[in-house]
Amino acid sequence: MVFVRVTDGAAPGGRALVADLVSASEPGPWGHCATGTAHPTPRDVRLIVEHALAVGWEPGVPGAPLVLTAESGDPGLPGFRLPAGGNAPG
């Protein structure tokens, strides 16, 4: 799993963005819990931010972090998926 955290440096105290990425590739001999070979690129991070903005993330507004999960939709990341979770955007 790769942990992505995004904040707006120009808006201290603003709402953070959280996206935990799970490799979509087949598990290695130790399963998905082992360190994978997939790493997000700058393009992947851009897709995550664009998706978050599309589902209502306002980075300059104070509030609890927006946690992207599978329920928030697919940001179109090749090689990764978002895990299921109960903390949908809002």
Plain-language structure description:
This protein has one helix at 42-54; strands at residues 2-6, 17-23, 66-68, 80-81. By secondary structure, the chain is of the alpha+beta class. Strands 1, 2, 3 and 4 form a four-stranded mixed sheet that branches. The chain is elongated and about 40 Å long. The protein starts with a strand and ends in a 9-residue tail after the last strand.
Overall geometry: elongated
**Strand and helix order:** EEHEE
What is the number of strand segments? Answer: 4
User: Which percent range describes the beta-strand content?
Assistant: 15-25%
Class inferred from helices and paired strands? alpha+beta
Helix content: 10-25%
Main β sheet profile: 4 strands, mixed
Tally of separate helices:
1
Overall mean pLDDT: 84
Rg over CA atoms: 14 Å
**Terminal residue distance:** 24 Å
Show unreliable segments: none
List keywords for this structure.
90 residues, alpha+beta, 14% helix
Short description:
With 90 residues, this protein is of the alpha+beta class.
Topology summary:
Blueprint (H helix, E strand, L loop, with lengths): L1 E5 L10 E7 L18 H13 L11 E3 L11 E2 L9
